[in-house]
Amino acid sequence: MAKDMTLLWGSGSPPCWRIMIVLEEKNLQGYNQKLLSFEKGEHKSKEVMEINPRGQLPAFKCGDVPLNESCAACFHLECKYKSQGTKLIPDCEDEKALILQRVFEVNALTEKSSIVLYYNWIVPEGERHDSAVKRNKEALTAELKLWEGYLQKASSGFIVGKNFSLADVIVYPAVAYLFQNGLSEQRYPKLAEYYKGLMNRPSIKASWPPTWKNAPKQETLKDI
């Protein structure tokens, strides 16, 4: 089964990491994979474009089906291999609904953190304004407080319910990315507890971004 899958990925990319976590959870090791370098522009290579015409990572194929949106790939793998490995979407409809809510809601966290992290890269120098930087940081702070509150209510070590789910698959890489970029553990203790609590889960540990191992954390978000 796994031998029919191909994943082209980049280290430290939350979307790539999500697919790798699901593949581990569903016992689908042994898939074809290749680590590419963003810095070298390898995500724009011909082999990537053949799978993902957007020239982005991940570039993932399950059989003959290209699935380059990480959430779509994760949903597909869970549905196709529902009875194999970890059950990532429960039968309980209420719990399933909340999982779907968190899965789609994490887009807001990703968008608000990205504009803070990459403001100088996204916005041309002549169009940058201190007031915009301030607004972006305030928006990210408000978003982080929402997620801090969700975890305060969850009190289980997982985003939803009492078991590791698709919500964790999607959310955890985004949270880990924030701490890798200097998010304060003191200001966001519940997010930090969640981050540390799942760090040694076998699927996460096995797929941990190699460029993060023994690398100093960035400090971009230290004042958020």
UniProtKB/TrEMBL annotation:
A Pfam entry, by short name: GST_N
UniProt xrefs under PROSITE patterns: GST_CTER, GST_NTER
Domain GST C-terminal span(s) in chain numbering: 92-220
Matches recorded under CDD domains: GST_C_family, GST_N_family
Domain named GST N-terminal: residues: 3-85
Gene3D superfamilies reported in the protein's UniProt record: 1.20.1050.10, Glutaredoxin
Span of the signal peptide: none
Family the UniProt entry places it in: Belongs to the GST superfamily.
Protein name per its UniProtKB record: Glutathione S-transferase rho
Organism: Oreochromis niloticus
Lineage, highest ranks first: Eukaryota, Metazoa, Chordata, Craniata, Vertebrata
Originating gene: LOC100699397
